[in-house]
Structure formats: structure tokens, C-alpha cells
Design goal:
The protein has 177 residues and is an alpha/beta fold. The chain has five helices and seven strands; from the N terminus they run H-E-H-E-H-E-H-E-H-E-E-E.
Length: 177
């Protein structure tokens, strides 16, 4: 973990090439930006492509109230559950087997963290579901290898590039941020 109550703790990561963890540098920059937007404290968070759970766990470490971790890979689900247990976060977290759109449709979210494997091509459908399940003033973080087109009903707050990673912060038009 980068910061917060769990800063400095290490996480297990799934083996193989099925997940692409965010670097500490990118994660720190993302969460510093989110904190400047007052988007973390007390938030209900969806980590829709959880991998190791690093993004959602970082949110919990920095004061999010609750996080749901969605993942399709059984090995990654096991790693997320282990990381949450090791860090004492199971009471504030839920691990669900499923893809990003299904997880997004199953709740209302203040903060949505979207970091799928590079080459993911389901952005239009995923962002449409997320847009409809995002609370007023909520924030969506999109991490990809390219700028992702934003559908109607969402607007870009910020775009940052970190090497080959593009991070976009989205919200509803007119949201106070």
C-alpha cells in the first residue's frame, strides 16, 4: 500500500499474465488526485477488475467506508480474499466473482475504479452501466493504455499520462468536484 492506515504493507499478487497491477507511482498519483477531489473518505467503492485488490484496498486504507472487489479469475479472487483477511479488512469488503459490468450494475457507487487488462474492448458498455450506477458527485477512474472515449452522461475531470498508462477521472456533468 502507498498511504493511509495500511501504508507500507505489501500485497500478494496473482501469478501469470492475467492481471496488470498498477504501479505504486500511478496508484499514489491516482489517490492523491482522488483525495483532492474529496472522493475517497466515506465512499462506497467498486474495484471492478480487482486483480490483487490493490486499488480498492488503497481506497479502504485512505478512508473509504466499504469496497466491493469484482474479478473473473479464480486465482485472483483467492488473492484478493487473502489480502483482505491479512490486512483485517474483511468487515468492510466484499469479493464477488464476475465481470465489470455485472459488478457495476449490482450497486450504487461513490467511487468506481476501472483498471482492466490492456486491450480491453468493452469500454462503451461498461461505462454506460457505471454512469447509470454512479451516485451524484461520484468519480470514476479509468486506467488504460489509451484515452478511452467518454459516453454521454459522463465528463472528464482530469486526464493524466504516466509513461504508457493513461488515467482519466470522470463524473456526471454538473457534479461538484
Amino acid at each position: 500500500m502507498v498511504a493511509g492506515e495500511l501504508g507500507g504493507r505489501r500485497l500478494d499478487t496473482p501469478g501469470g499474465d492475467g492481471s496488470r497491477p498498477s504501479t505504486d507511482r500511478v496508484r499514489e498519483a491516482v489517490f492523491n488526485a482522488l483525495e483532492s477531489l474529496d472522493a475517497v473518505a466515506g465512499a462506497t467503492v467498486l474495484d471492478a477488475f480487482a486483480g490483487s485488490g490493490a486499488l480498492g484496498i488503497e481506497a479502504l486504507s485512505r478512508g473509504a467506508a466499504r469496497a466491493v472487489f469484482a474479478e473473473v479469475a479464480p486465482a485472483a479472487l483467492e488473492v484478493v480474499a487473502t489480502n483482505l483477511s491479512t490486512l483485517g479488512l474483511t468487515s468492510r469488503a466484499e469479493v464477488r466473482r464476475g465481470d465489470g459490468p455485472a459488478a457495476a450494475a449490482a450497486g450504487r457507487w461513490d467511487l468506481v475504479l476501472l483498471d482492466p487488462p490492456y486491450g480491453f474492448d468493452g469500454w462503451p458498455g461498461l461505462l454506460a452501466v457505471v454512469r447509470d450506477r454512479l451516485e451524484p458527485g461520484g468519480v470514476v477512474v479509468v486506467e488504460s493504455d489509451r484515452e478511452i472515449e467518454v459516453p454521454d452522461g459522463l465528463m472528464v475531470l482530469r486526464t493524466r499520462r504516466y509513461g504508457g498508462t493513461v488515467v482519466r477521472f470522470l463524473t456526471h456533468p454538473g457534479a461538484v468536484a
